[in-house]
Prior knowledge:
11 strands
Amino acid sequence: MKGKTEIQPQPAATVTLVRDAPRGLEVLMLQRSHSLKFMPGVYVFPGGALDAADSSPEIQAMCAGLEDEAASRALGVERGGIAYWVAAIREAFEEAGILLAYDASGSIVSLHGDAAERYRAHRSSLDERRGDFGAIVRDEGLRLAVDRLTYFGHWITPVSAPRRYDTRFFLAVAPERQEALDLCARETLNMRFPTIKTPEQFTRCATAAELVAVLSSTRVVRPLLPRTTRDGRTLLPGDPGYDEAGGS
């Protein structure tokens, strides 16, 4: 009897948005709808699979401070690396209303005041699959602030998962004068393993600037992945029997 065909992971990007607060760093997390079949109710960072348009020459030309050659070298791929930065910014806007982009003056775009309703309409058009992110950036005269994203992590979903993603993790400081953020981190949140491990890297930093500096100087190493035993149990690094379990 032939085994199941291994599901190939989709390229994906996610962005961890942080900001300084009186009690220390705050991290933005979103809760997935309980009606979804895949990871219902789980808390995640904004992110998702790459779109074909994320690597288009047009949108690459609207990226500020980073070109594809340098982005690809940072990820260890031959070409097309900048698409991960674009996807991270696009997903942050689609899912959280945070737009990491520069306006004509070179400042981070403001989504308040007269622009608020216009950008809400842009988000709705993307959510309803009517709009095009690249066209929005072009028509608003923006440049994507890819230079504000720090690449710091790489996770691949285990082979046993019903959906698999090859995900690059980025960090960005949440811009001011955009939509209000309700940020929290509690031990009771339902989170997947990579999401749990990510904030653990932040605990030694007191400010967002310090965190960016630390991650910028740290070599990206793919962490050990969860492994599945023959009886279907999932083991995390450090669990008894992890080294003997299968998985990728």
